[in-house]
Amino acid sequence: MRLVPRWAVLSSGCAPVLLAGGWAIAAVLEGPAYDPVSQTISVLAAYGAAGFWVMTGGLLALGACHLLTALGLRPAALAGRVALAGGGAATLGVALVPAPSSGGSLRHGFIAGAGFALLAVWPVLAADRRRDTPWGLRPAPSLAATALMTVGAAWFLLELHRHGAPGVAERVVTCIQSLWPFVVVASCVRHADDDRPVV
Prior knowledge:
Elements: H1 6-30, H2 41-44, H3 52-72, H4 78-96, H5 106-126, H6 139-161, H7 166-195
Helix pairs in contact: 1-3, 1-7, 3-4, 4-5, 5-6, 5-7, 6-7
């Protein structure tokens, strides 16, 4: 089994912390005018937002984490690593092409949608059917993760369309998407440690 470098544990572990920390700090800076239930994370990174620099920095760091994790996740199938890296690149794009302070943006929406899709499909594309595969890369958990992320993305779109609680749905799905790479990396590191011969 090809080993996962220890720095991939750091890059994958930092991803959910940077995401949640970014939106939490940016929301505090934005003040009571920002409603985390009905407004998306993109509102925090929009031009003119009080916490623009915090949320933009958080998204840039998150994208870099996904790119590094994809690079280090050697036991995963190449298609999954490419999709994870693509999701990281899309996250960088979301930060570099922010939503306007009011109204929508087709470019921002397209990049965000591509990121959601790539981060949803990477687990199933990274799966390995061999018997000695780490738990996080086995077909059943990988398929379950992709299904959960896809349902979460559909929920987000539904809430966005009906003007319900898109902020809640987006936070749930992005938390899952940012946490799953760490779960996979941790399972690979544990698997490699278990395979080491006892001296």
